[in-house]
Amino acid sequence: MGGSISGGNATAAAEANIYGDPEAAQIVFQAGWPLTMVGLDVGDKKLSFPASISLNSARLTARE
Q1: Contact 43, 4 (CB under 8 A)
Q2: Radius of gyration of the CA atoms of the chain, in A
Q3: Which of 3, 12, 40, 57 has the smallest number of Cβ neighbours within 10 A?
Q4: Both ends of the chain: CA-CA distance in Å?
Q5: What is the pLDDT of residues 13-40, one digit of tens each?
Q6: Is 1 exposed, middle or buried, given 0-12, 13-18 or 19+ CB atoms closer than 10 A?
Q7: Are residues 24 and 30 in contact, defined by beta-carbon separation less than 8 angstroms?
Q8: Which of 19, 13, 12, 15 is nearest to 2 (CA)?
Q9: Cα distance between residue 25 and residue 31, in whole Å
Q10: What is the DSSP string of 4-64?
């Protein structure tokens, strides 16, 4: 998580995790490893196929 070009979820421009701990965000962004930012809208929709639903159900059942 981290941000959006269409607006934030903590303020009009800020994403909650970065707004809540900007120092930690700075450490992550300056760490030097490859980083991919994605917008908040990426989590709005997810395409699921029957095989992946079955696999996830099996994993959850195995944890119980």
Answers
A1: no
A2: 16
A3: 12
A4: 29
A5: 788 888 899 999 999 999 999 988 877 7
A6: middle
A7: no
A8: 15
A9: 10
A10: -SS--SSSSS--HHHHH-HHHHHHHHTS-S------GGGGT-----HHHHHHHHHHHHHH-
